[in-house]
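Input record (Table S2, row 428):
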Amino acid sequence: MTSIQALRGTRDILPEETPLWQQIEATARDILQRAAYREIRPPMIEQTELFARGIGEATDVVGKEMYTFTDRGERSITLRPEITAGLVRSVIEHKLIAQGGVQRLWHVGPAFRYERPQAGRQRQFHQLDVELIGSGAPRADAEVIALAATLLTTLGLKSLTLDINSVGNGSDRQRYREALIAFLTPHRADLDADSQDRLERNPLRVLDSKDATTQAIVQDAPSLLDYLSEDSQRHFDQVQQCLSDLDIPYQLNPRLVRGLDYYTHTAFEIQSADLGAQATVCGGGRYDGLVSQLGGPETPAIGWAIGLERLTLLLKQLQTQASKLMDVYVVSRGDAAERAALRIAQDLRQTGLAVEMDLSGAAFGKQFKRADRSGAVACVILGDSEADQGTAQLKWLATGEQVELSQAALLETADQIKATAIALRTGP
Ligand code: ATP
Ligand code: MG
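Output record (adenosine-5'-triphosphate complex):
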């Protein structure tokens, strides 16, 4: 029989990779918690209409990429293609925003888009999503952008660039839209097919077409920044001032857009020079119109999403050697010794150490090889004579030095083992 394989565009995250995912999640949780963000866990399926309204029919995500099906009750259901819409639905449904209050929320989990799979682009992928709902202050924009920058740099990433733009308010964009259509229409025949289609439906999106000819044409297009009202310009100036105050470097990119009516003011992306074609690791922006678009009260909001597959690709390049997390490897041979090993492994874990026990019953030589590969700094050895005398051998794997200790004394070396492990892992 042929075996069954994972669906195209989906991947198993295998045990050797999960430490990296856990490290990202733990770092994010810590940074977000200390900035007063709270975790929320919305469902992965929603009514299709939520995304049609919340992302917009004219986008690729809704128009071409959604996993939509009819359930047994004849309802149209969609696997979430991103996290913001469901999260905003939840906030409205549970009335989480009191008049004048703010909600700072985060969520991490899978999202689904029917796209052509390639490095950094999958059909089931993961996003870390952060939203600040209820504040229109430029400081709120700076706060969420700073969180993304802090997270990525804390994880050790370098060669990142932050692009920012302002798409203004609805009427700024209306005036710009007309100017853009006037500029693009004479070039219509030279635009790629998608962009020709967008010219009527969603012309701002033509600006971020990946087609080379279209890119060359839009180089000379009018700039959105020339169409900002005084208020919009002031907001954008203040966001930039805040970023400078926080020493966060950025560059203006007038072609960075979010194409829908409820996106307002700040749009931003963080790219990595090390990611090739799928360079954007974080995308976000302000969406002051979305909460009301989804039936809630007029509420300003801003947020971002980091694609975790792209983030792990970057971090793997940094960590050529996967971090091994074991402190102690316990080897044993003979009935009494094996029973003693079970208890010693357990007792050592109680002290806070990470301990792996060899279960093979194989010759000591084979067990020692596995001890070396485990990444542990110390090996505990139990044979018949140690089991008889209530002792154990403690071997330091880096030097080969070995001592015999009572089993009680062995437990007292836990602090020394931990300190050695930390020193070896962090290096000089
Ligand atoms: P792109 O232009 O690369 O398709 P996007 O504009 O569709 O990105 P967003 O909707 O802003 O992306 O999603 C935020 C982040 O989620 C992206 O910056 C990216 O890191 C990640 N992402 C989006 N689609 C995928 C996918 N199919 N596979 C893996 N990661 C993805
Ligand atoms: Mg996309």
